[in-house]
Amino acid sequence: MESEDRFYDLAAQYAETGSDTETDFLMPEELATFRNIQSQLSYASPRVVPEDGERCCVHFGNGDAQLAVLEIVPDGAVTLRHSDILGALMGLGIERRVVGDIFPTDKKAYVVIKRAMADFFLTHCFAIGRHVVHTAILPSLPEEATPKFAEEEVVLSSLRLDRFVSTVFHIGRAAAQEAIRGGLVFIDGAEEKRVAVTIKPPCRVSFRHHGKVQCGSILRRTRKESFVMGIRRYL
Q1: What's the count of helices (H) and strands (E) in the chain, helices before strands?
Q2: Which residues have CB under 8 Å from 87's CB, separation 6+?
Q3: 139-171 residue pLDDT tens
Q4: How far apart are CA 191 and CA 206, in angstroms?
Q5: What angle do CA 10, 16, 20 make, to 5 degrees?
Q6: 59, 77, 86, 202: which has the fewest Cβ within 10 Å?
Q7: What pairs with residue 198 in β-bridges?
Q8: In angstroms, rounded to a whole number, what is the distance separating the alpha carbons of residues 170 and 183?
Q9: Does residue 147 sit in helix, strand or coil?
Q10: Are 64 and 81 in contact (CB under 8 A)?
Q11: Can you give the pLDDT at residue 1?
């Protein structure tokens, strides 16, 4: 579990040595902890990678993150399930904290993983369940597996969470407040039950059964002093 102190330590390590460093893949509450102190660590150029990932690392420095993409192709007309792939990784002794998002598709699957573990998987995994598989390391996630989204602008009279949910997901404010208090709304993967908490971009807001959006910057203010925010709505 990454604590505030751990983020400060990694930032200081980069500042002292000039060598890039990064966390393992973070749990939602760990990412929320980082977001709370991100501005205080700006001297170490921290960024969240992959930017659109559900499971992300925090990288300190200006170099490339030490991540790789595994391509897994089963023999025959087989669709590998998320649980099968994760089980195969764990069965090899690979810890969950070094494995990012898993993307099963109709004919292939892709796994974002720490680069140091990619070669290990490549040389040790030849079957998943009863299915023979062929693996390769790709330079990036292919188009078929990348998250799809639409760019939008929304007008918000307030940056309160209940107002945001009401406006972005097209429901009444009372219904938005009920959903938030009921544990259906998440900010960067962490449940948020405070209706009046302020949205602080960049962050990802998920509303169970309604969708997910990535909050961008405040683009401008209207004549009535409302906020115009750019968002990405995931499809």
Answers
A1: 6, 14
A2: 128
A3: 888 988 888 889 999 999 999 999 999 999 999
A4: 9
A5: 55
A6: 77
A7: 160
A8: 18
A9: coil
A10: no
A11: 60
